[in-house]
Amino acid sequence: MHWRKLLRVLHRDIGYIAAGLTIIYAISGIAVNHIQDWNPNYKIEKSTIILDSLPKNATKDETVVYVLNAINEKGEVKNTYRSSPNELEIFVEGNTILVNYITKEVKQEKVNSRLFLKETNDLHLNKPKGLWTYIADIFAVALLFLAISGLFMIKGKNGIKGRGWWLTLIGFGIPLLFWLYYYL
Amino acid sequence: MKRFVLFLLLSVVFVFNSHSQEGVKYGKKLVLKEKTPISELFKNPKKYVGKTVQVEGLIVKVCEKRGCWIDIASDKEFEKIRLKVDDGVIVFPMEEKGKKIIAEGVFEALVYTKEDLIEQGEHMAKEYGTKFDPKTITKGKTEYRLKGLGAVVN
């Protein structure tokens, strides 16, 4: 088989395999690129209400039951924590409730992970570590192969010796210009 | 070909479901045999600065955006310590809030000037959408924290 034909076959088949991961990495790339403006992993709802009263001389457990009933929170209590003499934090699955004994303020912070987006971000940022590290390495090598093989797949005036050369030069030039602008 | 793809997908599902039941592990494996109470670190900070210690406690706060730090409640009431990890090396998900953790890290002393604290306060207020009054900062302070190496959350 001619080398250029072999290159095209390999480029095609590796391209098919890499398509899923490329889409995942691209979506996650946009999501985490704007991390200063939003939380790409979680939707966090914060709310505050003031209760009319809190039970006097109640134990911590009694206060927890009272507050959870008052805010209609049915989730399982994971733990509690006294962050200050006047405050009690209640950790419920997906919700953190901060009770102020003095002001009777109850602050809630409900956390829901962004379905699909959180999973893609975890993979993109290699949160699983272990085996995924090698999968991501193989994917990176595959991308490298796709980029290099792509340069030589076509011959003629649209190939690397013609139009392709100038477009490739632009591709290298963009990051180079930004690097010069930011670091020199 | 169809059978091969099916086998591959099932293998992936199996691998991702075969996590240890002994808690979720983060970063390096825990190596120390003895735990140091967090209250002891605050009581005698000079003794521990620069040393690797193992602590145990409840996770009471998690960095919302990057999972790059957590606050661990001390054995002493109203006290907590921040465990900071390098961005991306360890990522703590928000679901870990309210769970028990055993963590190892290097005990550090961070010295902040008044100006540093004002800048920090303004940054945190912006990030969390809270109010911050610079007048509440009258002088600098030394803050103690752990530079996280590894942890197990149950």
Outline the fold blueprint.
The complex is a heterodimer of chains A (184) and B (154).
Chain A: H1 3-33, E1 42-50, H2 60-70, E2 77-84, E3 87-92, E4 95-100, E5 105-113, H3 117-124, H4 131-152, H5 163-183
Antiparallel strand pairs in A: 1-5, 2-3, 3-4, 4-5
Helix pairs in contact in A: 1-3, 1-4
Chain B: H1 2-17, E1 24-27, H2 38-43, H3 45-48, E2 52-62, E3 69-73, E4 80-84, E5 100-112, H4 114-128, E6 141-153
Parallel strand pairs in B: 4-6
Antiparallel strand pairs in B: 1-6, 2-3, 2-5, 3-4, 5-6
As an assembly, this protein is heterodimer
Residue-averaged pLDDT of chain B, rounded?
89
- Round the Cα radius of gyration of chain A to an integer and report it: 27 Å
Count the E strands of chain B: 6
In short:
The complex is a heterodimer of chains A (184) and B (154). Chain A is of the alpha+beta class.
What does it look like?
- The complex is a heterodimer of chains A (184) and B (154).
- Chain A is built from five helices and five strands.
- Chain A has 184 residues and is of the alpha+beta class.
- In chain A, strand 3 and strand 4 (95-100) form a beta hairpin.
- Chain B is an alpha+beta fold and 154 residues long.
- Chain B contains four helices and six strands.
- Chain B starts with a helix and ends with a strand.
- The mean pLDDT of chain B is 89.
- The A-B interface holds A 35, 39-42, 44, 46, 78-79, 81-85, 89, 91-92, 96, 111, 113, 122, 125-128, 131 and B 15-16, 58, 60, 64-66, 73, 77-78, 80, 88, 91, 93-95, 97-100, 129.
